[in-house]
Input
Amino acid sequence: MPIPQILKKFKTVAVVGASRDPTKDSRMVFEYLLKNGFEAYPVNPFADQIGEHKCYKSLSELPKKPEIVDIFRPSAEVMPIVDEAIKVGAKVIWMQLGIINEEAAATARKAGLEVIMDHCMRIENEKMKK
Output
């Protein structure tokens, strides 16, 4: 499925690795998604709050099933996130800029998920507005 189609179809996003630091990309993308028509949930086992939003320790704790799991973690840490995303019924694994894990991508695809690697949701969403 092409990126624009994914961004139009799926609106519930778990941002894994969302940061408490407002200057970090993961935080800026999380806040961008909230302001641009997405229902975004921060996932970070080391934070209770991200800004004014309750932060969740894992995908399984989210109040709603995420359609897109947007990953801001090092490539080597992606596989357990993909495994959990499959368990909770996510539709898309989205690895942010610079994050590539072919093994995790293959696992996700085998389970029927769409996979995007090395792309930013914010940048891709902005391209659609032009």
Notes: The chain has a mean pLDDT of 97.
